[in-house]
Amino acid sequence: MSKSISLPSFSTKFPKVSFNDLTRATEGFSTSNLIGRGRYSSVYQGKLVEDQNEVAIKVFNLEIRGAHKSFIAECNALRNVRHRNLVPILTACSSIDSKGNDFKALVYELMPRGDLHKLLYSTQDYECSSDLNLIMMAQRISIVVDVADALEYLHHNNQETMIHCDLKPSNILLDDNMTAHVGDFGLARFKVGSTISSLGNSSSSSIAVMGTIGYTAPEYAGGCQVSTAADVYSFGVVLLEIFIRRRPIDDIFKDGINVVKFIEASFPGRVLEIVDPQLLQELEENPMALKEKCSKCLLSMLNVGLSCTKPSPGDRINMQEVAAKLHRIKDAYLNAN
User: Per the annotation, does 58 bind a ligand?
Assistant: First the structure.
C-alpha cells in the first residue's frame, strides 16, 4: 500500500510520486547516488522514470527526533514561496517503505553545481591539484546578491514574514549558470504580526532552535526569540566568508576573536591582507584605475557584511537595505569592468 501527496499549490504537471518511484529513481537509494547529508535527512541524486528529469530527493530519517517536524516545516514553507533564488521544489512523498515504515521525502530540482560550501573549499577537478576552485570576484558578488534577494523576499515580500533560521553555505545551492538558490527550510518559522510559529508544529516555542555554530546570531545564546535580524547576522557571516574564504570555525578564530572581529580589526586599511589571495591576484591583474574601483567595491561589500553582523540585533540593517546596497555595488562593479 502506498499513498502519495502532492503539496497544495504545486503545479499539476508535477507527478505524484510513490516510494517505489523514488527507489527506482535512486537505484535503491544507492550510496553512489548520495550527494548530501543534513541533520535530519539524506539527499540523493536521481532520475524520475516518467520524465527523465534529474532531481534531488531529500529522504527524512524519521528515527531522528525532529525529522518529521522538519519535513512538515519544509512542506509548509515551500508551498507558500516562489522566487528565482529559492531551490524549486517539485513534489513531496508521504508513503510507506518496503518494510512498512513511514517514509517522507521531498523532491527538488537538481542544482548541478552543488552547494556554496563545496565551491569554496573543494579543490579543482584535475588530478593531484591542491588548488581551490577559482571563483572570480564577479561570481562572488553575484552569489551574494542572489542570496540577499532570496532573504529580502522571505522577510519582506511574502504574505507572511518567513525566517530561515539556518542560513549557511551548505544551504546555498548553485545551478548550471552559477545562480544561487537558498534551500533547507527545516528550521524555518513564520512571523505574523508579533507572533512567531514553527512551520513544523503550531505548539512549538518561538525561542530559537540553534542553527549552526559560527552562523547563529549571538543573541540566540541567551535564548532570544527567533527574528529576521538573526537571519541578517547569518547572511553577514556568509558574505564575509565568501570574500575571505575562511569558515567561521577556522582555527585562526580563537581567544574571543570571531570572523567579524577579525575583519573589523583590518577594516578598511589592511583588508587586502586578509581577503582570499585569489581575489588579490585578480585585482593585481587589473590596470591601476580599475584596480582602485574594484578594491572600493570589495570594501563596500565587506562593509555591508559588517553592518549585518553588529552584536546588537537592533543595530543591524534589514534585508531590504542590504539588497538595495548590494545591487548598487554589483552595478558599480559591472560598470567599472
Answer: yes
